[in-house]
Amino acid sequence: MAQTEKKGGLLRKSSASKKPLKEKVVLMYDEIFTTEDPSKCNPRFWEELFLMKVNLEYLEGKLEALDGEELMKIKDNINCLFQHCIQALGEEHPIRVVNALQTLCALIRGVHQKNKSTSGFDIINMLVGFDKAELCMKNLMESLDSLLCAEGSESLKSLCLKLLLCLVTVTDNISQNTILEYVMINSIFEAILQILSSPLSRREHGYDAVVLLALLVNYRKYESVNPYIVKLSIVDDEATLNGMGLVIAQALSEYNRQYKDKEEEHQTGFFSALTNMVGSMFIADADEKISVQTNEAILLALYEAVHLNRNFITVLAQSHPEMGLMSSPTSPVPTTPVTPLGTTPPSSDVISSAELPLDADVQTSNLLITFLKYSSIVMQDTKDEHRLHSGKLCLIILTCIAEDQYANAFLHDDNMNFRVNLHRMPMRHRKKAADKNLPCRPLVCAVLDLMVEFIVTHMMKEFPMDLYVRCIQIVHKLLCYQKKCRVRLHYTWRELWSALINLLKFLMSNETVLLAKHNIFTLALMVVNLFNMFITYGDTFLPTPSSYDELYYEIIRMHQNFDNLYSMVLRLSTNAGQWKEPASKVTHALVNIRAIINHFNPKIESYAAVNHISQLSEDQVLEVVRSNYDTLTLKLQDGLDQYERYSEQHKEAAFFKELVRSISINVRKNLAFNTLSQELLLKEFSTIS
C-alpha cells in the first residue's frame, strides 16, 4: 500500500493519484469560508470542529489570501467562529479548549494581516461584530482569567498566555491596537500576579507573564489611565515581587551564562591562538564574534518594576534561595534556544552555576548583581542598534536606582559586601583583570566601576553622547547621596578622576568632529561640576583626608588638560557663535579648578627650586599641597548637589515607544507555529471523557 503524505492541509498518496484528499478539518474550514451558515446542513458542525486538530497554517493562510471584499462577505461566519471559540473555552473537555485557543490565535493573526492598513475598529468588527464586541471580549477575558487561575493544566495556561501575547502584539504599535481596550476593562492583572507568586506556575510561565505585563503597562501609557500601571505601582505582596524578580534575574542570568560560555569557547579556539601569535590587532573583531542577542523584553519589565513600584527596590538586593547556595536539580534542566530579544524563557527557577557567587562559601548573588553583569556586557558594544537600546535602558534603570533613597541605603551599606565580576572590554593598553583578585565591597562600588568602564571604553568617532550624559548623571546622583548622608565610601576615586580627565581630553582633541553633531559643552560642564562637587564637598564624603589631597594632586598633575579646556571655552564664549552661551557656562564652572592650579603650581615650582629637585615625587607634591591649603581661596558654587529627577513622559516617550514597538514585533515573530504545537497537549489530554 502506498504511503500517505500530509502537506498544506491535503492528504495524498505518494503514488500518482489524481485528486488529493483534504483533512476533515480543512474541509470544515472551507465551509466557514463560504457565505452559507455551515451549521445549517450539520447542526453539530461547531461541536465537531473543536474536536479536530487545528491546522493553523491553513486557517491563517486562507484568511490572508482573501481580499477585503471577500472577507466582508464571510464576516458573519468569522464572527460565528470567534463566538463559538469563546463558548468552547468554557467546555469541560480540554481538547476543545486547546483547539479553541489555537483557532483564536489563527483568527486574530489572520484577520489582522488582512487589515493591516485599516483601523483597529474594523478588525474588532471583522472578528466579533461591533454589536457583540463588548460582551464577547468580556467573556473571552473572563475565560482566560479562569484558565490562568485554575488548578488545571499547565499546558492550557501556557496556551492562554500565548494567545494573550498574540492579542497584544498583533500590531507593531501596541497603542494602536484597540482590541486592548477590552484587556484594560477586563483586567487579567491578578492572574499574572498569581502566576508570579506560585513557584510551579512561575517556573512554567513566569517569563511569558512578565513580558505580557511589561507590554500591557505600555498600552497608551501617556494618553489615558492604564489600570495595569496603577495596579503595578501599588503591589506590595512580597512573594509576588520576589517572584517577578526571580523571573527577571533568571532571564538575565541565562544571557550572562551564554555570553560567558561563548567567551570561553572563543578564548580556547583557534582564533585565540592566532590572536596571541600576531598580537592584539584583531581584538575588536574577537569581541564582536562573541556577542549574544540582547533581551530587551525582560529589561523593559525590570525598568517598569523599578520605575513604578518602590517596593520592588527591596527585591534588587534580595538573595534568592533559587539563585544562591542550593543543591543541583535532580532532573536535567532542558535548554532552550535563544531567540531575538530573549522571547524564549529560561526553563527553570534554578540559576546556572555560572551565576553562582565566585566563592560559594562567602556570598550569594542577587538581582542587582546579575543586572550589573548584564549591563557590563551589553554596554561594551553600542554600535549595534539593539545593544545601543539595551545600553540606554540599562542606564535609565540605574538612574532610577541612583535616585531612590532606599536603593542608595543598601548600595552604600558596609554590611552588604559583594564580589561583582563585571565584564571588561578587551583593550590593547590594559591587561585582563583576574577575577579571583576582586575585593568584596558595597554594591555602589560595582555601579561606579561600571560607569568608569563605560567612560574609558567609548571614546570613539561614533560618540554615544546620550549614554555619556546618563553615565555622568548617575555618578553625580550617587555623590549627592554620599554628601547628603556623609557616607565615606572606600573606593578607588583616582580611577574615576582619571577617566573624567581623559574624557575632557577626548572632547578637546575631537572638537571639530564632535561639535558638528553634539553640544559637547553640556557634557564638559557636567564633568567639570563633578570635580567641583569633590572640591567643595569632598571633605564630607571622601574616605580619608589623604583622598582629598590626592584629588588636588590629580588636578595639578593633569593641569594641562584643564588649561586647554579653559582656552577652548574662552575662545568660543568670546565669539558670537551658537556655542557662546554653553561655552561660557564651562568657563565660569572652571573658576575653582583654575584657582587650585594657579595657587599650587608656583608653590610646587618654588619648592623644587629651593630644594634643587628637577622632578618632584607624588609625596613631595602632596606635602606642598597640605602645607598650602590655608592660603587657597575658593568660590562657593551653588546647586552642585542638586539634580533634575528622571521623568519618562517628558523626555523618554519617543525612546520607549520605539523600544516597545521593536519588542512587540519580535515577540510576535517568535510566537511561531511550533510554539503553539499541539503534540504535547494532545499527549496530556489523550482521553476525552
Automatic annotation (TrEMBL):
Annotated region (Disordered), positions in chain: 326-346
Domain of life: Eukaryota
Segments passing through the bilayer: none
InterPro entries xrefs: ARM-type_fold (IPR016024), ARMD3-like (IPR039868), ARMH3_C (IPR013636)
Main location: membrane
Keywords, comma-separated and alphabetical: Membrane, Transmembrane, Transmembrane helix
GO terms for cellular component: cytosol; membrane
Domain Armadillo-like helical span(s) in chain numbering: 435-671
Subcellular location: Membrane
Name of the protein this chain belongs to: ARMD3 protein
Gene from which this protein is expressed: Armh3
